[in-house]
Amino acid sequence: MNVGDAAERSGLPAKTIRYYEEIGLIRPARTGNGYRDYSGDDIHRLAFLRRARNLGFSIDDCRQLMALYQDRDRASHDVREIAAAHVRAIEEKVRELQSMRSTLQTLIQACHGDERPDCPILDDMAGGTADEKALQA
């Protein structure tokens, strides 16, 4: 089947499928005239990649997971470690986002939100409060 059919069946845009081929994640067969010819197995691999990417795995992680998926002699602990490392990265990102939210909430509460030009939010982004800047001058 062609890339359009593969896109429809896998749920991925044709551009993404071509990119995955370019970086070596998939290798569809070629017809005599050079056109890509996606098999049912290719569609299954594309769906696997779509799901892995939707779970937030990086391209490198997807490459490792795909290799493990295709290796029937794999050890499940290898797969588990990749997934566990990803969870740890997600947890770190959640902590970072919570910290950003807390900082922004504090700055929003400090902002009068009126017609005055002073703004604690902008002052913080600029590296300090207006009072701190006056002392440095």
Tell me what the structure shows.
Pfam families: MerR, MerR-DNA-bind. Keywords: Cytoplasm, DNA-binding, Transcription, Transcription regulation. InterPro entries: CueR, DNA-bd_dom_put_sf, MerR-type_HTH_dom, MerR_fam, Tscrpt_reg_MerR_DNA-bd. It is found in: Cytoplasm. This protein is mainly α and 137 residues long. The protein has a domain at 1-57: Multidrug-efflux Transporter Regulator, Chain: A, Domain 2. Helix content is 67%, strand content 3%. A hairpin with a 5-residue loop joins strand 1 (29-30) and strand 2. Helix 1 (3-10) crosses helix 3 (40-54). The radius of gyration is 24 Å and the shape is elongated. The mean pLDDT is 91.
Strand content: under 5%
Query: Spatial order of the strands in the main sheet?
Result: 1-2
* Average pLDDT: 91
What CATH architecture of the domain at 1-57 would you give? Orthogonal Bundle
